[in-house]
Amino acid sequence: MPIAVDIDVMLARRKMSVGELADRVGITPANLAVLKNGRAKAVRFATLAALCEVLECQPGDLLRWETETEDAADG
Q1: Pfam families, from UniProt (predicted)?
Q2: How many helices (H) and strands (E) does the chain have?
Q3: Strand locations in the chain, DSSP E?
Q4: Is 41 buried (19+), middle (13-18) or exposed (0-12) by CB count in 10 A?
Q5: How far does Cα 69 stand from its chain's mean position?
Q6: Most C-beta atoms within 10 A of its C-beta, which of 9, 51, 56, 58?
Q7: How far apart are CA 74 and CA 49, in angstroms?
Q8: Distance between CA atoms of 20 and 40, rounded to whole angstroms?
Q9: How far apart are CA 54 and CA 58, in angstroms?
Q10: Which residue in 48, 55, 49, 41 sits closest to 9, CA to CA?
């Protein structure tokens, strides 16, 4: 997928657990795991804003666009 999710990076920088982040953002740990592992099809702006507020970061610190490799584009 061309959108990469870097929540793990910010969690490590903030020395915060997934459970603590989920609790502070107000989502279930399971839903956070889906987002964190790049399996989410969408993210609500309210959730993204809450993640940024808790992690004290910008949306671009959590999400980035990557080009697809030629092998993936051909398949």
Answers
A1: HTH_26
A2: 6, 2
A3: 3-5, 63-65
A4: exposed
A5: 21
A6: 51
A7: 35
A8: 20
A9: 11
A10: 55
Residue recorded with tokens 């030629």: 70
Residue 70 pLDDT: 55
8 closest CA partner among 31, 46, 38: 38
Name the token pair of 4. 């990469």
C-alpha dihedral sign at 33, 47, 39, 71? negative
Contacts of residue 22, defined as CB under 8 A and 6 or more positions apart, other chains included, come to 28, 29, 31, 32
Distance CA 40, CA 52 (A): 17
